[in-house]
Amino acid sequence: MGVVFEEEKQRKTVVVGSSLEEFIENAGGCAVVDGGFATQLELHGASINDPLWSALCLIDNPHLISKVHLEYLEAGADVIVTSSYQATLPGFISRGLSQEQGEKLLEKSVKLATEARDVFWESVEKIDNHSYNRALVAASIGSYGAYLADGSEYSGYYGSDVDLNKLKDFHRRRLQVLVEAGPDLLAFETIPNKLEAQAVAELLEEENVEIPSWICFSCVDGVNAPSGESFNECLEVLNKSKRIAAVGINCAPPQFVHDLIKKFKELTGKVIVVYPNSGEIWDGVAKRWLPSKCFNDDKFKAYATRWRDAGAKLIGGCCRTTPSTTRGLSKGCKRAEPSSSSFRLELGSFKCIKLELELGSFRALFVKLELELVKNQASSGSARARLVYL
Q1: How far apart are CA 25 and CA 7, in angstroms?
Q2: 268: how many CB neighbours lie within 10 A of its CB?
Q3: Are strands 136-142 and 79-81 parallel, antiparallel or unpaired?
Q4: Using N-to-C axis directions, what is the helix angle for 62-75 and 99-124, rounded to 10°?
Q5: 49 φ, ψ (degrees, to nearest 5)
Q6: What is the CB-side half-sphere exposure of residue 24 using CA atoms within 13 A?
Q7: pLDDT tens column, 139-157
Q8: What pTM did the predictor assign?
Q9: Cross-strand bridge partners of residue 389
Q10: Alpha-carbon distance 316 to 80, whole Å?
Q11: Is 385 helix (H, G, I), strand (E, B) or coil?
Q12: Structural contact between residues 68 and 97, judged by C-beta atoms closer than 8 angstroms
């Protein structure tokens, strides 16, 4: 019995603006966020021991930023994060740049990422049966503590003079500039307390931001926000916002993440995003990594499958993780692609037959097989099959 397959192809990306949940589903049920940026920049020779940190390369070495983006895309990242974590207007101005120059550098962070994404996607689209998705670009917005560069993003203490309005004023113009630059997502990172989470939520509403956002907290004890406030308190203010698509944890030790995901699942219905560091500890005052037992890529990948099974939908790495880490996550966290499927069919008076369908090139989990018997060939047992995406 002969079987002919007519494959109906679809693009492997979703239109930007569709839901984050749809993007994740198209990415295989779990989307991979890239990894440590400063780690790679230093590997390529960048000197970033500076309050601007990796954002310094926006001024001195933008080609290295593009290089790192491409490395993570090649490794399988579904989301790449811009180099703007510590790129703030006050920070640029303190280095002698004008407000306008600072704004141009913020725009540049998004442009470098989108250009890298587009160049990479144009190249892989020419390859038959590739396994990549067209990545999204998330504009990184570091916490107020990241700007202070005093380690307060891991303590949650900003001082008695910092209130809700001051935090909104700090973030407002940077948010406006990054939104105007056109990223696909906004990533608020290492938020250490309820106050800043509330400031971000209110600011997104005040600015009528339509780009999906995620807010990630730091965590130093595996239980609460660095400020000591419970995540129940912190998430309460975020659950009310329709502009925040995902919440989670970043730059925390990986051994904390599984229990935190379970806690977040109880506290929110939003998408959960996690991208911990390698397990090493950053001394924000001394500006150095403290000796500690870190996770290698195999252990990180093994833990990440547990995070996925616990409910995380966006998984990546933060400080001291690399494209090698991302490659492992891309292979380990996605739904298994069926290499073959065997089943038996009853076709009228024909005897039961066994068909082997090679589906390795499809990323869709479910396909529907439509068998249309060709009447004039029925006596010889021929049939025509067509694969259709559900």
Answers
A1: 21
A2: 19
A3: parallel
A4: 40
A5: -75, 80
A6: 20
A7: 999 999 999 988 899 999 9
A8: 0.81
A9: 367
A10: 10
A11: strand
A12: no
Q: Cβ contacts of residue 82 below 8 Å, gap of 6+?
A: 109, 110, 112, 113, 137, 138, 139, 140, 178, 183
Positions at the binding site: 251, 318-319
Q: Kind of pairing, strands 314-315 and 271-275?
A: parallel
Amino acid at 238: L
- CA dist 313 and 69 (Å) reads 21
pLDDT above 50: residue 237: yes
pLDDT single digits (tens) 22-69:
999 999 999 999 999 988 999 998 888 887 888 889 999 999 999 999
Here the tokens at position 184 are 């696909």
328, 301 Cβ separation under 8 angstroms: yes
- Binding-site positions for Zn(2+) read 251, 318-319
Could you tell me how many residues make up the chain?
390
Res. 281 pLDDT band, cuts 50 70 90: low
- The string of pLDDT tens digits covering residues 321-366 is 999 999 999 998 986 554 433 333 333 433 333 333 333 333 333 3
